[in-house]
Amino acid sequence: MTRRLLLLLPLVGFLVLGIFLYLGLSINRFERDSALMAREFPTFELATLEDPERVVDESLLEGEVTLVNVWGEWCPTCKQEMPQLLDLAERGVRLVGVDYKDTRDKGRDFLGTYGNPFEVNIFDPEGTLGFDLGVYGAPETFLVDRDGIIRYHHTGYIRPVDVRETILPEVEKWR
Amino acid sequence: MQTLLIPEIGHFALIIALLMALVQGVMPLAGAATRRPLWMAYARPMATGQFLFLAIAYLCLTASYLLDDFSVANVANNSNSLLPWYYKASAVWGNHEGSVLLWSLILAGWTFAVSHFSRELPRDMLARVLGVMGLVSVGFLAFVLITSNPFTRLLPNLPDDGADLNPLLQDFGLIVHPPMLYMGYVGFSVVFAFAIAALLGGRLDAAWTRWARPWTNIAWAFLTVGIALGSWWAYYELGWGGWWFWDPVENASLLPWLAGTALIHSLAVTEKRGSFKSWTVLLAIMTFSLSLLGTFLVRSGVLTSVHAFANDPSRGLFILALLGITVGLSLVLFALRAPRVSHQVGFNWLSRDALLLINNILLVIITVTVLLGTVYPLLLDALNLGKISVGPPYFNALFVPLTVLLCLFMGLGPLSRWKRMDGRDLFKRSWLSGLVALLIGMAAPLAYGGEWNLKVTLGLVVALWIVLPMARDLWAKTRHSAGRLAGVKRLSLAYWGMVLGHLGVAVTIIGVTVVSNYVIERNVRMGVGDSVQVAGYTFTMTELASRRGPNYLADTALIEVRRGDSRREFVMEPEKRLYLARGMPMTQVALSPGLFRDLYVAMGEELEGDSWAMRLQYKPFVRWLWLGALLMAAGGIMAVADKRYRRTVTVRGPEGAPTARAREATA
């Protein structure tokens, strides 16, 4: 009998491990979101794409709920995303672009060809702001509330369904 | 280019494969339980069919990559029209969906191989083995189809071009590392299936271990090579020059390897001596469970790591359920069916049996230590005790001493005899080797580094202690009246496999010891014309250039390297690349490899005034790490080639115990 109970030990050990793995699965999911959501937008001081003389900083984002979109001329997916961003701009959402690891000429050409939904574009040729934002690749989009706190993070391309199902509801939520 | 049907054919083939796996999982097991030969006969054709249809599905996905079909979401997210064709083909497994598909294909491949090469197995045993593998396959194929379908289309708005493969993965290392690793992971499903079949059939004799041994060795060899490739890839591709980081995902591959190493030894004891029966079954379950756990850790994203692909929580839950069902059911079965009466064959405390028992205990302790370190952050987090990460100090503090201890017993293993042996005899055979190992170990750091170093001595003594007694034993064993060559021929391939495997461990230990203690690393600022000396080599930057690759832009530095006053010089070309599609910078290391030293040059950040931060490293004996792993794998394969596994063993009758001949072959 004792031996039979001993044989159950591996099962018990595994069940305990399984419970922790299950908890880990649910906890980390929550943590990952909140870690990004609560963060203040990183400080920066960069010229705009439109005007090399005009230098902007993080106060640019305060006062109104803003979508910050990281893009680049070299990024094919960004071209796919532009119609959705133009759609958002038409619906009255304030958009600020970050032209990431790009040249001025190419960035301007891009906006000329695909349209410009952005109120202003922060020019980030060295990728310093992108680095502080933890950008992995373009496009990525951050929702910043009126106090300059990041409230939502969208990795990758915003699909047409995302505009209706996630982006607009999030914008409304923080307005 | 958009293809009309290829992804749909692939999707359809995947569904057919799932249905076949279902039949393969249910019918033969039910047939074996109710003794219906017709039902059992489903196993083999279904295994073949499942493999065929998964191969079709896999080829369809590969075709979509090669044809740049960006209407397939998986292709659009992980490939790019500028990517060279070989990276397009390997990008298939550079992402979650494709790699789970590869996992399933390899499982079907192993199943097919078992069904093909195990014709001499009793019918009910084969039915159960294939049935169990079929059920595992059902789980994974359902996982692919329900949560991770690689054939999903992006319609109607399809992108012009893909987002490109993560630049870290655009490398030869990626082409070979994951398939090797998966061959190992998944290969352990065979020994698992054999153990479960033995439990189900109630036949826990030595026979199943004899059948399972070759499969286990091959899987273990693949896993060994896979881990070594991963380490080598991290060494030159991640740009840090480290070769092991105790990253959760590295640990996830090390865990089944450690358990598998224990398993191949305990299988030997069970086969030869008929003891350790329950233990071997448990280890077989444990090894495959750890493979599944590894898959869970990588795929679910519960632990953060460089390997974590974009994660979806529902996937994590699905794999956890899969893990829970597979391992939970197996352990319940184990608790119910493991041999009731322990009729262990007696052995003396000084015997090969005892040494292998110690080997197993130590390896399991090491496995548990690594497992705890890996999941500890998760445990604390779940108990709300804060977020921490367990770093290399923990692992080194426990792993190194336990390994040293393991190696001390390992040196005696090959000399020892089964059942019992005379202590004086063992001493006679090993004292000289021990003394020589000790002397060389003490002297070598003085000769090499100029000063004594305890860690180096310890590492070298342990490595020599593995090799020297074995070499002496080999010398004694090959003594033969017809000359030494005849003596060499007399030894079995299984024995040579053991020798190679142990030699490999020693070689790896030497590599680890030397490179960890004698690495020279300098971080310097270099512009054109600057010279730096490292370990007797002069590095001179002669040129800075920019060039364009197929899908990236690169800054290249030309570094002339000269050893001492030698006239000969060679050029190293480290690069900093910017991959265009993702805008991701990558460091491309320049390596000058050698058996006794690597030179390693990496470009860091660009500094003002046309100069760069450069990282120069001199890494002695680093190749030995991987060379040792290759020797271990070669040993594992060589043991399989032993002729006793090729001898046909006839076992008759559905319930028949192994016949006298089978027993003879296992003796």
How much is the radius of gyration of chain A in Å?
A: 22 Å
Task: Give the H and E element order of chain A.
Answer: HEEEHEHEHEEH
Number of helices of chain B: 20
Percentage of helical residues of chain A? Answer: 40-55%
CATH architecture of the largest domain in chain A: 3-Layer(aba) Sandwich
Number of domains of chain A: 2
Q: What's the β-strand tally of chain A?
A: 7
The percent range for helix content of chain B is: 55-70%
N/C terminus separation of chain A:
66 Å
Radius of gyration of chain B: 27 Å
The average pLDDT of chain B is 87
Largest sheet of chain B: 6 strands, antiparallel
Relative strand content of chain A: 15-25%
How many beta-strand segments of chain B? 10
Order of helices and strands of chain B: HHHHHHHHHHHHHHHHHHEEEEEEEEEEHH
Task: Look at the helices and sheets of chain A and give the structural class.
Answer: alpha/beta
CATH superfamily descriptor of the largest domain in chain A: Glutaredoxin
Task: Give the strand order of the largest sheet of chain A, numbering strands 1, 2, ... along the chain.
Answer: 5-4-3-6-7
Q: Tell me about the largest β-sheet of chain A.
A: 5 strands, mixed
List keywords for this structure.
heterodimer; A: 175 residues; alpha/beta; 2 domains; 5-stranded mixed β-sheet; two-stranded antiparallel sheet; B: 667 residues; alpha+beta; 4-stranded antiparallel β-sheet
